[in-house]
From TrEMBL:
The lineage of its organism: Bacteria, Pseudomonadati, Bacteroidota, Sphingobacteriia, Sphingobacteriales. Gene3D superfamilies: Aldolase class I. Pyruvate binds at T47, I206. This is 4-hydroxy-tetrahydrodipicolinate synthase. NCBIfam families: dapA (TIGR00674). The gene is dapA. SUPFAM superfamilies: Aldolase. The active site is at Y135, K164. Belongs to the DapA family. Its main location: cytoplasm. It catalyses: L-aspartate 4-semialdehyde + pyruvate = (2S,4S)-4-hydroxy-2,3,4,5-tetrahydrodipicolinate + H2O + H(+). Its EC number is 4.3.3.7. The keyword Nucleotide-binding does not apply. It is found in: Cytoplasm. One of its GO terms (molecular function) is 4-hydroxy-tetrahydrodipicolinate synthase activity.
Length: 293
């Protein structure tokens, strides 16, 4: 699974002023990310506002990205939810041509027990024609995949190949990295902690910031993976304030503001998400100029 070492980008979904999907903007983003040197693309994760997209829109976006990418980078499809039966049906009906893995978020809102989470992913793994990457993001889902559950799933299912871990808990990270089987991928789900996680044995990250600054971020991650932490630390510190601004008024509002300023796509979101304030927009502009200087 070396194709998932390095930087994956959880792509935003650009929208037109009338709220429809902006496929021209999406094409601009694909080329921006490929030119920026990232290792793989993640389509329709939470950063892609998947919660407010219809099944038909998702199908069109998956197909569009596959066609425009044209085999240049590995692709990961975000397919998850809080109804196991529906997620299984979506996976079975997914046209996986051109895709290399599925990223599936832990069930949200229901607050399942650890056994419920295990059984959910068991059903996902048994249904999936592609390798599966778990996604733990308690800040969004309202529940946590315990380290023991992650390791249990990693040991029990050969096609569960890794986890995008965004619990923000280094004690949890330590336990997974210590106990996970050889070859299992520990992928950072939080841009700010990527450097220390790679130092501990992580495989890289799936990034929000990389939408806007793919070159700067992916270079830093490659430096970390090569063990050149002295060089990587400077890049890490240079990106700290920009990264903070990406999340200060929510994701993906911050990174869409940056993409607008970079001329990639508009900063339009679907309600209940809204654009960042003018003060944050100006602060993002200042940081972009500083980083690009």
């Amino acid at each position: 699974m070396n194709k998932f070492f390095g930087t994956g980008v959880a792509m935003v979904t650009p929208f037109q002023p009338d709220g429809q999907v902006d496929f021209d903007g999406l094409n601009n983003l694909i080329e921006h990310l490929i030119d920026g040197g990232v290792e793989y693309l993640v389509v329709l994760g939470t950063t892609g506002e998947s919660a407010t997209l219809s099944k038909e829109e998702k199908k069109k976006i998956f197909k569009f990205v596959e066609e425009k990418n044209n085999g240049r980078l590995p692709l990961v499809a975000g397919i998850g939810g809080n109804d196991t039966r529906e997620v299984v049906e979506l996976i079975k009906g997914f046209d996986s041509a051109g895709y290399d893995a599925i990223l599936s978020v832990s069930p949200y809102y229901n607050k399942p027990t650890q056994e419920g989470i295990y059984q959910h992913y068991k059903a996902v793994a048994e249904a999936s024609p592609l390798p599966v990457i778990l996604y733990n993001v308690p800040g969004r889902t309202g529940s946590n995949i315990a380290p023991e559950t992650t390791v249990r799933l990693a040991n029990d299912f050969d096609n569960i190949i890794g986890i995008k871990e965004a619990a923000g808990n280094f004690d949890q990270f330590n336990q997974i990295l210590r106990d996970m089987p050889e070859g299992f991928l520990f992928i950072s789900g939080d841009d700010p902690v990527t450097l220390p996680l790679i130092a501990m044995g992580g495989a890289g990250l799936i990034s929000v910031v990389g939408n806007a600054l793919p070159r700067e971020l992916s270079d830093m991650v490659r430096q970390c993976l090569a063990g050149d932490f002295k060089t990587a630390r400077k890049a890490h510190f240079d990106l700290i304030e920009f990264t903070r601004l990406m999340f200060v008024e929510g994701n993906p509002a911050g990174v869409k503001s940056a993409l607008k300023q970079l001329g990639i796509c508009a900063d339009i979101l679907r309600l209940p998400l809204v654009q960042v304030s003018s003060a944050t927009e100006q602060a993002i502009a200042t940081e972009i100029k500083k980083i690009k200087a």
